[in-house]
Design goal:
Structural class: alpha+beta
Largest sheet: 6 strands, antiparallel, barrel
Radius of gyration: 19 Å
Helix content: 10-25%
Distance between the termini: 27 Å
Shape: globular
Number of strands: 15
Strand order of the largest sheet: 10-13-12-11-14-15
Low-confidence stretches: none
Strand content: 25-35%
Order of helices and strands: EEHEEEHEEEEHHHEEEEHEE
Mean pLDDT: 93
Number of helices: 6
Length: 266
């Protein structure tokens, strides 16, 4: 691991403050993650799904002394607030935008007030109003994420991916032991039946990143499509039945699908 601590402000992320005596039960019935046992100073990764079980909003639920923060995509915060307000009904919950800055750190462990990223240890830490001075930019963090092999918000698409296709089950993003949540039926059925036909996996190649949506081909067969990327590495949603032992290309260039060690075998 690098001896340097890299810190970047995540301008694409924003916070919603959730409080009130019913905040736990309110979120517990909506999100893929268990909220009842969330402790102050702890973060958990999860999502709000559509009733059909597709990814709508990815979230970090960050425990506070009274209530929590929802760390969400900045460009979707207003829509998420509106969606939560629809579900609120008579619950004693307050929802408000919070302008506390969101930071990420990776490399050597940072000092003071940082929270371990609940997805993967290799992704580092998240900071909320920690006052640290950035020495990197968000693009550097995105490069780090791709090197780790973890899909992120740039890969979800709009109401397109199922959480298991986006590796939420492998990144602590779904608690299958909790009670009901929006989209649970489809998510649990996919897990129970082992019916995940496609997954987001990193690919390696020479040269610049292919465009979003570029096809990954196994010969002449479509094996997947590129989502986010950087020079030499990208994230792709690939058909698992078409990549094993196949000679793959993207943009006419040879490429290799990798399965990071944290994903386990199979």
């Amino acid at each position: 691991m690098s001896a340097t601590t890299c810190i970047a402000a995540l301008e694409t992320r924003a916070l919603i403050s959730v409080a009130g005596e019913d905040w736990r039960s309110f979120l517990q019935g909506l999100l893929t993650q268990d909220v009842e046992t969330l402790a102050p100073g702890e973060a958990r990764f999860g999502a709000l799904l559509t009733p059909q079980g597709r990814l709508l909003y990815d979230l970090f639920i960050v425990g506070r002394a009274e209530g929590c923060w929802l760390d969400c995509a900045a460009d979707k915060r207003a829509a998420l607030l509106q969606r939560l307000a629809i579900y609120k009904l008579r619950a004693k919950v307050t929802l408000a935008a919070d302008e506390t800055p969101v930071l990420a750190a990776w490399g050597a462990a940072p000092a003071g007030g940082w929270i371990a990223d609940p997805r993967l240890a290799a992704l580092g830490w998240r900071g909320y109003g920690v006052g640290a001075a950035p020495n990197a930019v968000e693009a550097d963090y995105e490069r780090h994420r791709l090197e780790v092999g973890a899909p992120g918000p740039a890969d979800w698409g709009e109401d397109a991916a199922y959480p298991l296709e986006a590796d939420f089950d492998l990144m602590n993003g779904v608690d299958f032991r909790k009670g009901c949540f929006v989209g649970q039926e489809t998510t649990s059925r996919m897990k129970r039946r082992g019916s995940v036909k496609s997954r987001m996996l990193p690919i390696r190649f020479e040269g610049p990143a292919p465009a979003h949506g570029a096809e990954v081909l196994a010969g002449t067969l479509r094996a997947g499509e590129v989502r986010s990327g950087a020079d030499g590495v990208a994230m792709a949603l690939v058909r698992l039945d078409r990549i094993e032992g196949a000679a793959l290309t993207v943009d006419g260039r040879p490429c290799e699908v990798l399965r990071p060690a944290w994903m386990g075998a199979g």
